[in-house]
Every structure is written in structure tokens, then in C-alpha cells.
Amino acid sequence: MYLNVVPSENCSMHQIRVPEPLRKSFKLDYGDYLIFNTDIGNFSVQVIKSTYEDMIEYGDRHAFVNEYSPILDSKNSDVFIQPHELTVGCDPELFLLNRKTHRVLPAYKILPKESQFGSDGDLAELRPDYALSPEQLVLNIRKIISGIPYKIPLSLYPYTSSWHALRSCGFHIHLGLPIELLSFAVDKTDTFIKNIILALDYFVGIPAAALDPDDKRRFCKKYGSPGDYKLSMRTLEYRTPGGFHLRSPAYSRSLITSAFRVIEEIIKDAEEASGGWLDASKIVDFDYFKDRYNLPSKGRIKSIYSTKDRSELKHETIKIHEKLKSLIGNDSKFVIKERHQNEQPLFCEWLKDET
Question: Is residue 166 within 8 Å of residue 207, measured between CB atoms?
Fold first, then answer.
């Protein structure tokens, strides 16, 4: 297979934007990995949707890569397709505050909309490259954070919290599921996805809420509610956790690890139980999830997350941590159980800690 590739300013280093006509002609799916033979060896990029601006300039018969990508310097554009594995990504948000007044400066006033460190309305947002492991994703986040001081004025500082100045701030996690699910090829995919979200609310959302010192986002009706997710042809986006978890690499790794490893176990079990997604009748039944993963009822999961009694939240989280030990094994050691003492609300730990 041969692709014409051209540079695009806002494209991530490990992604390739492929217009729909070109994607269909090569039978590519969003999330597939393309492996190019470059002068520095094999280089992989993940297929994502192209932008309108890209196609205005070059049309829909080119694919778009980062302007510094080694693919552009290669002697040919022969490429091999690797169907995508379970991937993990995130787009945590943060505030930009004035150092003197501590007021929020709307991020859109100084940051581009489409960039790895860009704006989402008033909030700044990190968009690290997707990864095949939580460890690599944390490194990808660190790479962006290390460049933040050079991209904002000295009069501003980044502030990580789930709620500030009547604004909600999230730490959304993107999970690249098997294409059978993302394309709705599995019978009753929507029901199965909702069961996954209930499991994430229990194993990830409740411990995240117990760790987060600010409850305001949790009780905001629009953002941060249990069951908040978005499904696309690229990923399942879990939207319940708050931006507090960007405060340190340990917090971020804890959140990402628990979500990724729980999903990994669920997908592995479901693929086997459904005979390779051929018969989903068993896995779409919530009772299967409830028994397999020792979950409370649907209503109980929601009420625990939404309780105003933090002692109840903490008590349930202790039980969840014990269940995670058997579910995700050795990776449970990365799950943070208590907040750090004297933690810094800025990025000090990111720049000195190699967690």
C-alpha cells in the first residue's frame, strides 16, 4: 500500500490524519496503526480523522502527518497496516490563572484550538499521543507539560483542580476498544458499553471522587456525573473523573492505570465469553458484569458516587481497592489510596518526579 503524505502543523507526531475517501479506498479503520519504513527504522502512526483545513489546502487524496515526522523524509511511503490494539489516551483540562489576581484567563485568548497544548473554551487542555500502556501515556503527558512554560506568558500559571471559579475541569480518558465494538458490529453494543461504564464508575469513578478534595464538580449536573461517556469510531471516552488528577504524575498514573487495566480485563473476558464477539447475549446482561466483577447494583453505584457523606465514599473505596488487587493484579500497586501531604497545585512534581 502507498500513501501520499504531507505535513500539517497541528498533527501529533504519532498520528496520521486520513480523509474519509482515502480511508475507505484503503479499508482503514480509525485507530488502526500504519507502520512506515523510514530512514530511522519502522515508525508507527495511528489513523485519525482529517480536518477541514487540511483538505482545503491539499484535497482528500493526501494523508497528513506532523511537520517533523520522519515519514516525510523517507525515500518511499510504503506502509503496512496493523489493526489497532487496546489503546489509552486522555485530554486532561486545567486553568490558566493570573499570578497577581488569581483570576482565570480564558485559554482561547492565547492558545490555539487544535494543538497538543491547546484551548477548549476557557480551559487549557493537554492532548498527549495515545499509548499502548499507562506508563507510556504518562511520559507523553510529561513531554507536553515540560513545554508549557514556553507557551504561556510569565504573568500566568497553570492550576490543576476539578472546580474553580464556577468552572468544571475534567480528566477524560480515551480507551481504544476493538473495532467490533466501535463500529457497533456486536449485537446490543450500546448495552454492553453502558455496562462497561458502570464498571468504570465503580472501580475508577468512586475512588477518583474519594481522592479529589473538591466535591463541586461531582454535584454539577452538567459535568462529572456518573455514567458520563462519549463513544466515537475512535474511542470510548470516559468523562467522569476531574482535572485534580493532573496534579502529579502519580495521580495521573493511578487514574489511567485503573481505567486501562479494568477495561483490559473486561474486554479479554467478554471476547472469550462471546466467542470472539459472535454471540453477545451473555455479556450484555448486567447480571453477568455484576457477578463476574463483584459489583453492587446499578442504583447503588450511582448513589455511592453521588453521596454527600464522604465517609461512605471513603469506606466503599477501601473495599474497591481490595477488589482491584484481584482484578488487575500487580498493577494495583500504582493506584493511589490517599492524597499526598503538602502537595503542590502546580507542575513541580511533573518536572522532578520520574514516576
Answer: no
Residue 242 burial (10 A CB sphere; 0-12, 13-18, 19+): buried
* Residue 355 pLDDT > 60: no
Q: What is the pTM of this model?
A: 0.78
Place of cell 467478554: 270
pLDDT at 168 over 90: yes
**In the Cβ-directed half-sphere of 172, how many Cα atoms lie within 13 Å?**
22
Q: Tell me which of 351 and 98 has the higher pLDDT.
A: 98
Interatomic CA distance for residues 341 and 339, integer angstroms: 6
Query: Strand, helix or coil at 56?
Result: helix
* 3-class state of residue 152 by DSSP: coil
Residue-range domains of the chain with CATH: 5-82 (2.40.40.20), 87-352 (no CATH)
Distances (CA, A) of 87 to 63, 167, 206, 210, 261: 22, 30, 23, 26, 11
Could you read off the pLDDT of 306-330 as tens digits, one per residue? 999 999 999 999 999 999 999 999 9
Residue 142, pLDDT > 80, answer yes
Sign of CA dihedral 59, 65, 66, 69: negative
